[in-house]
Design goal:
Elements: E1 2-6, H1 13-24, E2 27-30, H2 31-45, H3 52-59, E3 64-68, E4 75-79, E5 82-83, H4 91-100, H5 104-117, E6 123-127, H6 130-134, E7 140-145, H7 148-161, H8 168-184, E8 197-200, H9 206-220
Parallel strand pairs: 1-6, 1-7, 2-6, 7-8
Antiparallel strand pairs: 3-4, 4-5
Helix pairs in contact: 1-9, 2-3, 2-4, 2-5, 7-8
The structure holds 2'-deoxycytidine-5'-monophosphate.
Length: 221
């Protein structure tokens, strides 16, 4: 079974997908982390994030992998065999990923990788284009939304836990900027699939969000 969760930054996709994955024994795939890892690759190579030819020249020589940490349930993201799970969350990478993820060739490579990973059995993926482009035939599709202030608060708390200190305004501005670019780009923009179930996570706990999705999965099984 393939479960697609899309939505803007901080809407609760990854925490919910992770919880559903661990409760239902589905493999959780964080597709945003893959675009972020490609951004780290460009940074390490000294290639400007908006240098399309430069970023493309790195693609053939890039290996991005993901595993689940069995203790915490967190995903670990590897770039060319090295764990970059911390680096991918830094403000520099959050800013740069917007340009890197707009490069068509980057999307072709990562979408094909995501489809390969989807063959591994029961999977739950979160991103921006999972239900519309990566798996248009997914068994279940969800689109999560929440008020911008709630999303910024959540992202701030997540970053704090990871040891990254930013202000509420910094986080809110970054989210607003990325949402606008993600929804207005021509290739695979952020938008709900026609058959997606809309979930407003504003007044819900992560447990409640997970239970809603698990309810749909159980009905399908
Ligand atoms: O989910 P995230 O915030 O870690 O994603 C980082 C960026 O990657 C996001 O701003 C847009 C891009 N992205 C994308 O274009 N397609 C996806 N499936 C996932 C993320």
């Amino acid at each position: 079974m393939i479960i697609a969760i899309d939505g803007p930054a901080g809407s609760g996709k990854s925490t919910t997908a992770k919880l559903v994955g661990s409760k239902m024994n589905f493999l959780y795939i964080d597709t945003g982390a893959m675009y972020r890892a490609m951004t780290v690759k460009a940074e390490l190579a000294g290639v400007p994030f908006d240098d399309r030819a430069g970023v493309c020249s790195l693609l053939d020589d890039t290996v991005i992998e993901q595993t689940i940490d069995t203790k915490s349930g967190d995903t670990r993201t590897y770039l060319d065999g090295r764990d970059v799970s911390y680096e991918i969350r830094t403000p520099e990478i959050s800013k740069g990923v917007t340009s890197v993820c707009e490069i068509d060739e980057v999307r072709v490579k990562l979408v094909s990788l995501q489809r390969e990973m989807g063959k591994k059995g029961n999977v739950i993926l979160d991103g921006r284009d999972i239900g519309t482009v990566v798996f248009p035939d997914a068994d279940l599709k969800f689109f999560m939304v929440a008020d911008i202030n709630i999303r910024a608060e959540r992202r701030l708390a997540e970053l704090k836990e990871k040891g990254i200190a930013l202000t509420f305004e910094d986080v809110r501005n970054d989210i607003e900027r990325r949402d606008l670019r993600d929804s207005s780009r021509s290739n695979s923009p952020l938008r709900p699939a026609q058959d997606a179930v809309l979930i407003d996570t504003g007044g819900l706990t992560v447990e409640e969000q997970a239970e809603i999705i698990i309810g749909y999965i159980k009905k399908k099984l």
